[in-house]
Amino acid sequence: MTESPTAVEYVVLEDGVLCITVSTAANGTSLDFDGIEAGTVALRELDPSVGAVLLVGTGPNFCAGGNVRAFAAADDRGAYVRGVAEHLHDFLRLLDRAPVPVVVGVQGWAAGAGMSLVCAADIAIGGPATKMRPAYPGIGFTPDGGMSWRLPRIVGAGRAAEILLTDAVLGGEEAVRLGILARLVGDQVVQEEALRLARTLASGPNSAYAGIKALLHASETSTLSDQLDRETASISAAANGPAGREGVDAFIEKRRPNFSEIGRDAT
């Protein structure tokens, strides 16, 4: 860790968006664990006003992965890397359980744990110059950050094996084609567009988003019949909830729904 939380504001809550800085230019754009730890605390004690989470890097790259120089300097490299992985995984478990959309703006490189964080997002936006690489084989490591679990579910088992084993570099267009990135915008506006999207989601029907995320999570191990039952229960509850009532009433009254005053209610 190279910077104290007083030097960088790692967690900022504004306009319903919880912005978490996961890498900094001063840290060589590698994973900054002051940010990860601050984000872990914020996610564990999630403010009720949070409507979306945005992960950002403050340097030219979103996140260039773990600090390899710190790995090399450790007296017990295995113990050190275990601690790094455990801290990152605590953060990722909480991020996965967050009932709000998670957005990532991927400028420059997302390598190693940075690529894992991109795969953990609900919506990831990049630019034409965005590049991703597992990076683990290059230093003789195996993946962390959930990449071995998420990547096959995004791109398929065979393609994931090729990407990981060959340490493939993926450009922005290929990452969109594979489904890792949702879309590309101009390189100079990646972070701006990611923030705009996060703000839009934060003002939306948060209970519906929570229900959508719950259904998507359940679908990973569900049969179609069980998933249909879950969908029935979820949409019925949504119809009686404040967001559902507002959405339907606004449609009938031919006006834009106002979800921002409803708050983050349960689905």
UniProtKB/TrEMBL annotation:
GO molecular function: isomerase activity
InterPro entries (alphabetical): ClpP/crotonase-like_dom_sf, Enoyl-CoA_hydra/iso, Enoyl-CoA_hydra_C
Source species: Antrihabitans cavernicola
UniProt keyword annotations, A-Z: Isomerase
Presence of the UniProt keyword RNA-binding in the record: no
SUPFAM superfamilies: ClpP/crotonase (SSF52096)
Protein family: Belongs to the enoyl-CoA hydratase/isomerase family.
Name listed for the protein in its UniProt record: Enoyl-CoA hydratase/isomerase family protein
